[in-house]
Design brief:
heterodimer; A: 142 residues; 6 helices; 85% helix; elongated; B: mainly alpha
Chain lengths: 142, 186
């Protein structure tokens, strides 16, 4: 009984290892174990041959099952187009454009900030100087 | 093949060209998205047809894939192929579809179960038998087999697509191959 279970388990395990082996994902040790098992097990040997042939056959199948007719593609596109929400992207685009415009404004000020600050400072000093002079004269008269 | 056809082929395969179209679609260009649809629809439909084994469901899922793609385009990472991204959406749509048992039974009543009816001029009898055998597999096992053995995805990718463990993906593949061999030996 124990021998039977062990043999059955070994075959089941070997089948999974054969899958990995055919997929190129197996260690050398496991590969040797498979070869050893297959040499003395007709069932697993047949499994190896059949699975190997099947995977080779499957790989020959084309990625495109059948060509869709132009009419069917147009029909599909019509259904898709009527379902896609254009306004969503248009709104997003408008938001993005506004954001870009704001970014440009910000970048303009940050680029010329020293120049603008300088002009502002000169104007302020000029104003104070002018206004201050009038104030002093006003106080002097008083 | 003419030089024009060769250059067209190069443009289609050029990811930069595809990424530019995606950028344009992100800016709201429906024309750019239509070009992306035209270039990818046959592959997406083929995948949907193989994993669903039902042409009506395949058409429906294909349309849903592109509607979803338009809505989720902003989440597309420009580090992978657009077709792989569409495949992922297709698998998700298919899984959502098979979860809806009621919907499936209604459709079966309406149209009758579809079996892949391949044009005999398109391939050998062996390939037709193989396609028909694939269409008879259980849905999850079929999806894994199609993605792994035909589309060439790895178990890690399939586990991410289908939100399952890598071990589960391997188990589905093992089961699918076993059933397929039995079906083909009949």
């Amino acid at each position: 009984m124990n021998t039977y279970n062990l043999e059955k388990n070994n075959c089941e395990k070997t089948e999974l290892l054969i899958d990995d082996s055919l997929d190129g994902m197996i260690s050398l040790i496991d590969k040797e174990l498979i070869e050893e098992h297959i040499a003395g097990c007709t069932k697993c040997s047949e499994y190896y041959s059949a699975t190997s042939a099947l995977t080779k056959n499957l790989k020959t199948l084309p990625s495109e099952v059948s060509g869709l007719s132009v009419q069917k593609k147009n029909e599909m596109w019509g259904n898709i187009e009527s379902n896609i929400d254009n306004s969503k992207y248009e709104n997003e685009k408008a938001k993005r454009d506004k954001y870009d415009a704001d970014e440009n404004k910000i970048s303009f000020f940050s680029h010329y900030k020293y120049f603008i600050s300088g002009i502002a400072a000169v104007l302020l000093i000029g104003f104070i100087a002018e206004h201050g002079e009038h104030q002093l004269l006003h106080f002097a008269k008083d | 093949m003419s030089s024009q056809a060769v250059s067209l082929n190069l443009i289609v395969k050029n990811p930069d060209e595809e990424f530019r179209l995606i950028e344009e679609a992100l800016d709201g260009s429906c024309d750019a998205f239509k070009t992306l649809f035209t270039r990818n629809v046959t592959r997406v439909y083929s995948l949907c047809l193989r994993i669903s084994a039902d042409q009506y469901i395949a058409e429906e899922i294909t349309q849903e894939v592109f509607i979803n793609a338009w809505e989720k385009l902003r989440s597309f990472q420009f580090d992978s192929k657009f077709s792989s991204w569409l495949h992922r959406i297709a698998v998700n749509q298919f899984l959502m579809h098979i979860r809806s048992e009621k919907r499936n039974s209604e459709r079966e009543e309406e149209y009758g179960k579809y079996r892949l009816n391949h044009d005999t001029n398109r391939g050998t009898d062996n390939k037709i038998d193989l396609e028909n055998a694939i269409s008879k597999l259980p849905s999850q096992a079929r999806a894994v087999l199609v993605l792994y053995d035909i589309e060439g995805y790895k178990h890690k990718e399939i586990s991410e697509f289908m939100n399952i463990e890598i071990g589960t993906s391997k188990a589905h593949l093992h089961r699918a191959r076993k059933i397929l061999k039995e079906e083909l030996s009949k």
